[in-house]
């Protein structure tokens, strides 16, 4: 009882804070100076049409690198937490589920290439329109999820995925160091020509970084999903 | 476009409401998975609030294309909260994955998801 009352009190206090915050909020009618600078300068400086991608990969690139590191640590610690001893592994092999029905198998076979293609499209269009490495990587991983749901016995090549993911990470840092040597600083994508904003090959190294991020995030999320299988 | 309620206010109220529902879920439930869902809802609500603060009246997506020429960049919304939320979503995913992994471990130790069964770590 006392627990419920305390919980209710905490929720009400939070509600009061939120009410004050929401009450004091007024919609802005103009951009803040920093946002103004990003929106007007990013297409000129970087040649990137999607400002959000420009901020993520160029202006706040270090942040994104840290985020990728967080994902890597999550994959590692989920693996540590969910590692199975050999007995449990044998037990899982024993009770093989019966195969999914024809409809599920055919459906997943038809949908999987479409999902992966769409993921690749979202990844490589990150600098042009809504999309980018993280979003596309998540779509690719949702394809993995479908595969594992439709066929629980399917084996993912976890070693290959780890190798791909590590290589993508190394290439990402290498691009960052190239930016340090050839352009203004670490993770500066301007060592490749910016090109014309809106063209497919433009925005310096941003599409390259975006693709690497997509590969890395897709592989990492697939590994995490694979680990959660019982 | 003179609406009675601006779209960002609607979003903000929705986001805060979702956060409160998540908080209720965290504090009131005993089932570990429901608590984790509560955390996810709490985070999602705050993401919606953050995106809402970036809205500029009459603004459109900050993508320079046919709809938004380079000259009229002032019509774009603030891209910084959007970029921050992309980061926050990934971190939220990471936290959820870790919580779920711990829940699986706890379940394999005690064969239950009831948080009341895990008492020895209380001080």
Question: Any chance you could write out the topology, listing elements then pairs?
Answer:
The complex is a heterodimer of chains A (230) and B (123).
Chain A (H helix, E strand, L loop, with lengths): L1 H22 L9 H13 L5 H9 L1 H21 L4 H9 L7 H23 L8 H18 L7 H25 L23 H22 L3
Chain B lengths: L6 H22 L3 H22 L25 H32 L13
Protein traits:
heterodimer; A: 230 residues; mainly alpha; globular; B: 123 residues; Helix Hairpins; 3 helices
Question: How would you portray this structure in words?
Answer:
The complex is a heterodimer of chains A (230) and B (123). Helices cover 70% and strands 0% of the residues of chain A. Chain A has nine helices and no strands. Chain A has helices at residues 2-23, 33-45, 51-59, 61-81, 86-94, 102-124, 133-150, 158-182, 206-227. Chain A has one domain (33-227). With 123 residues, chain B is mainly alpha-helical. Chain B has one domain: Helix Hairpins (Orthogonal Bundle), CATH 1.10.287. Helices cover 62% and strands 0% of the residues of chain B. Chain B contains three helices and no strands. Chain B has helices at 7-28, 32-53, 79-110. In chain B, α1 (7-28) packs antiparallel against α2 (32-53) and α2 (32-53) runs antiparallel to α3. Chain B starts with 6 loop residues before the first helix and ends in a 13-residue tail after the last helix. Classes of the chains: A mainly alpha (230), B mainly alpha (123).
